[in-house]
Amino acid sequence: xxxxxxxxxxxxxxxxxxxxxxxxxxxxxxxxxxxxxxxxxxxxxxxxxxxxxxxxxxxxxxxxxxxxxxxxxxxxxxxxxxxxxxxxxxxxxxxxxxxxxxxxxxxxxxxxxxxxxxxxxxxxxxxxxxxxxxxxxxxxxxxxxxxxxxxxxxxxxxxxxxxxxxxxxxxxxxxxxxxxxxxxxxxxxxxxxxxxxxxxxxxxxxxxxxxxxxxxxxxxxxxxxxxxxxxxxxxxxxxxxxxxxxxxxxxxxxxxxxxxxxxxxxxxxxxxxxxxxxx
Length: 279
Description:
This protein is an alpha/beta fold. It has two domains: 198 residues, no CATH class; 68 residues, no CATH class. 45% of the residues lie in helices and 15% in strands. Strands 1-2-3-4-6-5 form a six-stranded mixed β-sheet, sandwiched between helices. Helix 8 packs antiparallel against helix 9, helix 8 packs parallel to helix 10 and helix 9 runs antiparallel to helix 10. The longest helix is centred in the last third of the chain and has 27 residues. It is globular.
């Protein structure tokens, strides 16, 4: 059995979204935030649960949480390339923001919401792998509100060698990108110096999957590999038209292998209705 890949949605949720690993999640969030935004505790609102995952009751959100300052977080891992991910990221952010209150409640109850989107593909027209978006006045550059903050971490743009790693976010991005290449006994010293990253590596190394979880993991891994192969083919045939054709072919291939629609949707970015139509 090969080492588990933390970029696969199922493993990502189990590693970062489990109650027993909250300290790992806190350390990761702090690596993304600025020094004056650091948090000390967090409450998971959709902790990993196999029964819910099995029955399709897991939220569309990967990890939803709130910290001790009542700041809300949505953390997403996305491995399938999507040309419309900006819309998806805003939708995820808006869902966490709007779900804080019921209809008729005061808007002043709404709290700051931070979206953290981890992408395994290039999406933004920026060279840096980490970019932050807020709401500003176009002329004066004055901030309208601090209630919206959306981060994009594009793993594919992270090109640093271990010797070039400087920040906690560098270490976490290297972990997500390459964790399946090493284990707790061979973790690079540049990563091992961060106790949270070291613990995540150890947790991943000993993470056990029962037969059902293993099947889910293998299905998602298979979907990821097929998706990447289809994108490669699409690039050779022409970007936009080819990618659209590649997405449909990926869905067809996964349907033929009886992969669950939830996983196909995650792998392709297609809605359940679009996948049903392909059937």
